Amino acid sequence: MTKVKKEKLDEGEEAAQATPELSYEEMLANLNPIAQPLAGRKLTKRLYKCIKKASKHKNIRRGVKEVQKFINKGEKGLVVLAGDTFPIEVYCHVPIMCEDRSIPYAYIPSKSDLGAAAGSKRPACVILIKPNSEYQDSYNDCLEEVQALPLPY
Known about the structure:
Helix content: 40-55%
Radius of gyration: 17 Å
Largest sheet: 4 strands, mixed
Shape: globular
Distance between the termini: 64 Å
Structural class: alpha+beta
Oligomer: single chain
């Protein structure tokens, strides 16, 4: 048998074929029960943009262990959690830590989108955005909106 060569695709086409884009409503179907307060569609997009800007300046903490470590050390910022992480025992203690230290936090629907916004090929379930003067306007907008979200209790 002879091998058939695959046609070369542009990176954009290849990525579009590899992962089908889910709408915001479709992502909401995969949420776990503790994903409160959940960011709306507009706030989710703003958080992704803020995370992209922060990752360019190396001002994010990615992953449960790293975020937990820096929250315990007293670092301030904005915590973004992925709402489709299973099992929830992996990160269910992080919101409690944030509330104890008065750090604002919000859930977004997709961990793969959260990882992509941070510049990683791997999904991320928790990210801490540290404030910086380079993207202060975007950070402050996100911070105000996250603090305005109703808490689950």
